[in-house]
Amino acid sequence: MNKKMLSVAVLVAGTMGAMTDASAFPEYVVPTGAKGCTDCHLTDEGEGFKPGILDAAKGGLPGLKEFLHPTPVAAGNTKPVLHLINKQWDVTVGSSPLVIPLLVSDAEDDMFAVNISTPTNGLPVKGAVLSQERTDVESNLPAIDFKWQPTAAQANKTYTVNFTVQEKSAGHKLLSNAVTANITVWPARQSATKNVSQFKVQRAQWSNNSLNLAGAVVFKSGLTTAQRNAALKTLSLKMRTNSGFSVGAASHLTVDANGNWKKSVSLKATTVPCTVKLEYEGLNATSPVKLAPKKTCLQ
């Protein structure tokens, strides 16, 4: 398999990704090359959206331009594919930086630029960078890492980031699908000990009156097995709802040799959270609870 050369370009721009009201935005007409409001909306008054326009808007101005003026597809050329990522990410100020791997597939091995955009009223991810192109070990696909080490001023906020890639080879200018990441920035932890450098939740699902959780723990480098085991005995997993109410009792985790953990907590339909917030040694992670009963789950 030929290795793709990915040229990295960052575009941080406002988009219409969060628009759901009936107000048209005339200021988008000129920069997108539209002829009028009805290129994107169903009426001149801005009522409704044409199919596909909101997905295109996730790619910022390049996405809107491509939607309104699609690039003729060269014979045998196919759109690049930006592989799906988790929608929810967490990062703690002063701890390990957030790294989101972006994997790309393209049948023609075209060169690419990576576009980053935020919703119209979204918060800018100041300080974020993109890595050089690398080859992902597991998939053997070209990959670019989105890296961000937020500051204290960016804590206690959630940032929405949309990613797309666009071909940059001669005659090939197709735009990929868009993927979205919601990033919660937590304040610096106040715990006296810091044996854990990263804490992750990778699955949260409610079934059979149980909240089933799974994730991973990354310990500080240099810990001996004895130090790690001692730390596990004193650490407890705490759970809360999105609004801050405690869920169940604090409990210990069993972590395997690779740092993976699983936890099942018995909960009734009226006590399961819609979104669960977990805290472990001062590090936080959050996740929507799949299959949580919409009518009774706790906000």
From TrEMBL:
Question: What keywords would UniProt list here?
Answer: Signal
**Which domain of life does the protein's organism represent?**
Bacteria
**Signal peptide (residue range):** 1-24
Name of this chain's protein:
Cytochrome c domain-containing protein
Species annotation: Crenothrix polyspora
Top-level taxonomy:
Bacteria, Pseudomonadati, Pseudomonadota, Gammaproteobacteria, Methylococcales
